[in-house]
Amino acid sequence: MSLAVVHARAMLGIGAPAVTVEVHLSGGLPSLNIVGLPEAAVRESKDRVRSALINSGFDYPQRRITINLAPADLPKEGGRYDLAIALGILAASKQLPPQSLVGWEVLGELTLAGEIRPVRGVLPAAMVCRDLSRALLVPRLNGAEAALVQGCDVRVADHLLQVCSALRGDSTLESAVAVPPPAVTGLPDLIEVKGQYQARRALEVAAAGSHNLLFSGPPGSGKSMLAARLPGLLPVLGEQERLEVAAVYSVAGCAIDTVGHGSRPFRNPHHTASAVALVGGGSQPRPGEISLAHQGVLFLDELPEFPRAVLDVLREPLETGEILISRAASQMLFPARFQLLAAMNPCPCGYFGDPSGRCRCTPDQIQRYQGRISGPLLDRFDMQLNVKALDPAQLLDPASGRGEASGVVAQRVAAAMSLQQARQGRPNRDLGAAELDQVCGLAPPQRDLLVNAATKLGLSARACHRILRVARTLADLAAEERVGEAQLLEALSFRQGLLRQGGSGAR
């Protein structure tokens, strides 16, 4: 029978649905037809495969070749099916034993000389193959990525001839080897920051509870410098988190590098980024910056310079931790559980509220500038802090005191996060309204304090919940079982960074 079946995997979001490559040889004029909703790159594979087979010394069947990529209603893109199609043609023409393909799943693009090129989305395919106990054959350059999935039998090859030799039983394919994790060095350290003790404290609290944080202050006050030091305070990714993040990077075609070995991502898009660049999309949707920041940090510098429509697309992912991209033919769900860190100037010139009095912006200019950030988005920052500029004498004094190193602060952050995992299994940022009553345990005096503060400052219900979450994190850093008055007052102090600016009112 001139029929062969080879198994492959498509790429749909961060999933890897199964694709069966069916190859049938029949009589008629020599031709090759690919059916099953192939896009342009897949249709072009017939020319790549033909040249690869001929240049590798195989006989190209002079018959009518029909290739079906099932299921037929699943869009197929890219050159990831080249190797599977070539093996199917060889098996259908009896140049390979058809039974040798049983139990294998194959991914790879072919060059005209028969070499195997890397493809995107190998990691999700390896995760599925592990669960199904199937061997996965990938290009050598994808081997280290696929080997991140422990328990999956991943084999690598450089050329079509190597694959065919192994399938005939003349040789064996090498197993993929995971690259040893590189040492994480060179992260900016908090010890380099002079002064700014409240901002340093806010950064520690934000890291401990995964809270969203907004720094506001004049140019040169150290907002970006502080933000760059947040990754040094965060613990490495757990096993499941590591695979989730690496899968997003694999689908996006980005280098996994240290992210695949546990380092939390830190994304810093330019303020000219579009909404699609942030949330993802395209004709064949790919992850955007918020998905690439999954389980890590998304830093938006010069926040008001981003178009307001772009910023508002962040509101739903901040609440749900995922982004649903809808197209006419399908919907794709990407993870987007990130920590939002932002920095901004208080006015167009940047010096509103500076003791020097050099700001010449009118109240109307200040209001318009701050109004570029919508109230609902601003309300989603758990902490909003006004960072003041350092005195030049203190900044340039070599003997000026410095704070703790990142390693010392990271130990406290790790201890607080361990308490949260033991208590509720997730960061305090994700606590629901009902859970807050249980984990905070406010006594009547503390409850009255929060009610009075919310009334005077005009805080919304969401803002009150965020203050409670921050207070719970402060209690965890102090290893306190209940939230006390000191934690509530400090949490309130982290909520007033923008309240005194431009008459914008409480958020």
TrEMBL record:
Superkingdom field? Bacteria
Could you say which residues form the signal peptide? none
Task: Give the record's keywords alphabetically.
Answer: ATP-binding, Hydrolase, Nucleotide-binding, Protease
Q: Write down the InterPro entries for this protein, in alphabetical order.
A: AAA+_ATPase (IPR003593), CHLI-like (IPR045006), MCM_dom (IPR001208), Mg_chelat-rel (IPR004482), Mg_chelat-rel_C (IPR025158), Mg_chelatse_chII-like_cat_dom (IPR000523), P-loop_NTPase (IPR027417), Ribosomal_Su5_D2-typ_SF (IPR020568)
The UniProt entry, under Pfam families, shows: ChlI (PF13541), Mg_chelatase (PF01078), Mg_chelatase_C (PF13335)
The record's listing under SMART domains reads: AAA
| Gene3D superfamilies in alphabetical order | 3.30.230.10, P-loop containing nucleotide triphosphate hydrolases
A Gene Ontology molecular-function term? Answer: DNA binding
GO biological-process terms attached to the record: proteolysis
- The residues covered by the AAA+ ATPase domain are 209-391
Q: Which family does it belong to?
A: Belongs to the Mg-chelatase subunits D/I family. ComM subfamily.
How is this protein named in the record? ATP-dependent protease
The organism's lineage is:
Bacteria, Pseudomonadati, Pseudomonadota, Gammaproteobacteria, Oceanospirillales
